Amino acid sequence: MFGLFVRFTCKDEAAATAFDELAARTGEQIRANEPGTVIYAVHRVDGRPLQRAFYELYRDEAAFDEHESKDYVRAFLSKRERYLSATEVDRLDFVSGKGVEG
Q1: Which structural domain range is residue 39 located in?
Q2: Which residue of 21, 31, 38, 98 lies most exposed, with the fewest beta carbons within 10 A?
Q3: Where are the beta strands (DSSP E) in 11-75?
Q4: Could you read off the pLDDT of 26-47 as tens digits, one per residue?
């Protein structure tokens, strides 16, 4: 398993709404086209209305590489910047968990 934890901070409320719409459209494509993407979850952060947290889990690094190569993912990566003031990315090395196998 290979994963990412990403925290985004949106510029303002309007940007947060637009970012959520972009993330939702991208998520639809990921669900429909990426069997190697095990989890792709977007969360609002309680008490921090401009922050979004992504938890992404891929079958392996090859599945992540395939995810990154998709046109809709590349479009998300380029369009998201107009809505954001900060991005933090942590690469995750899977140890154990429920509902997934390492």
Answers
A1: 2-92
A2: 98
A3: 37-45, 48-58
A4: 999 999 999 999 999 999 999 9
